[in-house]
């Protein structure tokens, strides 16, 4: 039996920053992989 799209997206694992392992707060239309803290370190 196929899973409904809503259930599929609800059960996806949370995105985790590959640099520090902190959970990334996802936003619509965002393709960032790192958390805000790690991104700000790269800008400095």
Structural class: mainly alpha
Low-confidence stretches: none
What is the count of structural domains? 1
Give the CA-based shape: elongated
> Which H/E pattern describes the elements?
HH
Total helices: the number is 2
How much strand?
under 5%
Distance between the termini: 50 Å
Strand element count: 0
Main beta-sheet annotation: none
Rg from Cα? 14 Å
In helices, the fraction of residues equals 25-40%
Mean pLDDT reading: 85
What are the key terms here?
44 residues, mainly alpha, 32% helix, Protein YhfH, YhfH-like, elongated
Explain the overall architecture:
The radius of gyration is 14 Å and the shape is elongated. Helix content is 32%, strand content 0%. The chain has 44 residues and is mainly α. The longest helix is centred in the C-terminal third of the chain and has 8 residues, at 36-43. The protein has one domain (5-43). Pfam families: YhfH.
């Amino acid at each position: 039996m196929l899973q409904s799209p809503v259930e599929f997206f609800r059960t996806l694992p949370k995105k985790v920053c590959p640099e520090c392992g902190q959970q990334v707060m996802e936003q619509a239309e965002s393709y960032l992989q790192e958390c805000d803290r790690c991104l700000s370190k790269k800008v400095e």
